[in-house]
Structures are given as C-alpha cells and as structure tokens.
Amino acid sequence: MQRYVIFANGRFDPKAAEWLEPNDFIICADGGTLHAQKLDIVPDVIIGDMDSIPEPVLEEMKNQGVAIIRHPVNKDKTDLELALDYATEQHATEILILTALGGRLDQSFANILLLTRENQPKTQIQIRNENVLIQVMTEHQSLTLNPPLNSQLSLLPISENVHIKTLSGVKWLLKDETLERGQTRGISNSTTNETIDLQIGQGICMLVIEFA
C-alpha cells in the first residue's frame, strides 16, 4: 500500500527528506508547501485555505500539475486536519507527518493530538521531526523499531489505563504491566538493543522516541 506523507506548517526540518521513500504520495498542508519547496519536493496535492502560500508559489505549483484543494479561511479544522481527512478518504493505512512541531505551542499540541482521532484506528500515523518519532498505539497493536542505542523512549497513557503486554529492548522492561493516565512511570526509558518490541493489550498510549 502507498504511504501518504504530509508536510505541515510547523518548524522547517532539514532532515525531513531523509524519511521519504520513492513511492510516497506527498500532501502539503498549506504553508507546508514552502518546507517541501526548500527540499526540492513537488507535492501531489496542496490542501488548505492558502493563506500561508505566496501566490507566485501557488501558481508555480499549479503549472507543475499539483492538485490544489482550497478551503475557506473561516473553517472549523486546521489545514493539517484537512490533510489527514484527505489521506483517510483515500483509505491510507500508513501516514507520516513531517514539519508538524516547533511552531506555536498550541498548534504543536493540536497536531500531536490529531494522532488520537477515533475515525482512523486502523491507520498507522507517525510524526517525525528532526530526532523525534511520535506514534499513538491502540489496543492489540504491536510495533517493532530499530532506533539507535541509548535513544530515549517514553509511553504516555491517553486512555485511563493502558495494559502493556510487552516492551523489550529497553533498560526497564515491561511485561503485563498497567500504566495509568496522569502518572509518569512510562517516561524516560532508554533503548539497550538494536530492536525494540512493543505490544499493547488494552488502552491507547502515545509512544515518543528521541533518537540518540
């Protein structure tokens, strides 16, 4: 299945191109177009109210065959949420969001919380920004990753309780453990192996990895 990659309008990340693959479908959420342009990436679609894109840039994109989906300025969703809606409508099973952090604090929080939307529980969605990976894990999900040794790993409960079936490849192993929302037990673990395995039994939690 084709992966959908969304450039948001957060802080520019010069490493963003490193995460891309040749067959990715590229969506730019309004001002995210300028980030993609800096990396010489031509998107497939631009979505938003276009209030952050200079008209000459928008015209250039149109001339290159980029689809433009314009929404009213007075709308009830951010441009990134509209981009996620579009990817979901295309039945995306894997979505990667780039340049979504580091701008306004409220926008960064809102962008992260978009990962918890209930209308796409079967979609794997990640935010990557410089040396950080953020992903929401839901019940019965499992994940295997290969971060560098000594990377920092945290599990943040989103639901009231999260049952961790297994967390291996880290300094403090978890097996059949429960994490409670509002407590900090899952913070600041560190990777000790080249491979980490995480299996969620019940609940929803946010995985945050800061690469070493």
Write a structural description.
This protein folds into 2 domains: 4-130, Rossmann fold (3-Layer(aba) Sandwich); 142-210, no CATH class. The protein is 17% helix and 35% strand. It has helices spanning 32-38, 55-63, 79-89, 105-113, and strands at 4-7, 25-29, 45-48, 67-70, 94-98, 124-129, 132-137, 142-145, 152-157, 161-168, 174-180, 189-190, 196-202, 205-210. It has a 10-stranded mixed beta sheet with strand order 4-3-2-1-5-6-7-14-9-12. β2 (25-29), α1 (32-38) and β3 form a beta-alpha-beta unit. The two termini are 30 Å apart. The mean pLDDT is 92.
What key phrases describe this protein's structure?
17% helix; 2 domains; four-stranded antiparallel sheet; Rossmann fold; 212 residues; 14 strands; alpha/beta; ten-stranded mixed sheet
Précis, in short:
The protein is of the alpha/beta class. The chain has helices spanning 32-38, 55-63, 79-89, 105-113, and strands spanning 4-7, 25-29, 45-48, 67-70, 94-98, 124-129, 132-137, 142-145, 152-157, 161-168, 174-180, 189-190, 196-202, 205-210. A hairpin with a 2-residue loop joins strand 6 (124-129) and strand 7.
Q: Strands, helices and their partners?
A:
Layout lengths: L3 E4 L17 E5 L2 H7 L6 E4 L6 H9 L3 E4 L8 H11 L4 E5 L6 H9 L10 E6 L2 E6 L4 E4 L6 E6 L3 E8 L5 E7 L8 E2 L5 E7 L2 E6 L2
**Mean pLDDT, nearest integer?**
92
Domains (count): 2
The main β sheet shows up as: 10 strands, mixed
Compressed to H and E, one letter per element, the order equals EEHEHEHEHEEEEEEEEE
